[in-house]
Amino acid sequence: MKKQECNEWRSALDREVQEQSAAALENVGTELQFKLAKIVGEPLPAEVHDLLNALEKKLDRD
Q1: What does each C-alpha distance from 12 to 8, 36, 37 come to in angstroms?
Q2: CB distance 52 to 44 below 8 Å
Q3: 4-35, pLDDT tens digit by residue?
Q4: Per-residue pLDDT, 31
Q5: CA 39 to CA 55: how far, in whole Å?
Q6: Whether 30 contacts 38, CB under 8 Å
Q7: CA–CA separation, 47 and 7 (whole Å)
């Protein structure tokens, strides 16, 4: 195989790997956005809500 053909093959492979990596990262980002939206939309557990209320009251007193 000539050196130029080898370099062309490597360049094509590099481009394909970069495209696949970019697509995979985009998919991960999309999944994380959906999960974050789901988490943000859920109400806080009662224990956490009570702790936040207690903290707010304490901060208001100080």
Answers
A1: 6, 36, 38
A2: yes
A3: 777 888 888 899 999 999 999 999 999 999 99
A4: 95
A5: 22
A6: no
A7: 61
The residue type at 7: N
Alpha-carbon gap, residue 30 to 56, rounded angstroms: 34
CA–CA distance, 48 with 43 (Å, rounded to integer): 10
How far apart CA 22 and CA 12 sit, in angstroms, is 15
3 state SS for the chain: CCHHHHHHHHHHHHHHHHHHHHHHHHHHHHHHHHHHHHHHHCCCCHHHHHHHHHHHHHHHHC
How many residues can be counted in the chain?
A: 62
**Phi and psi, residue 5, nearest 5°:** -65, -40
Measured CA to CA in angstroms, residue 47 lies from 28, 40, 42, 43 at distances of 31, 17, 14, 11
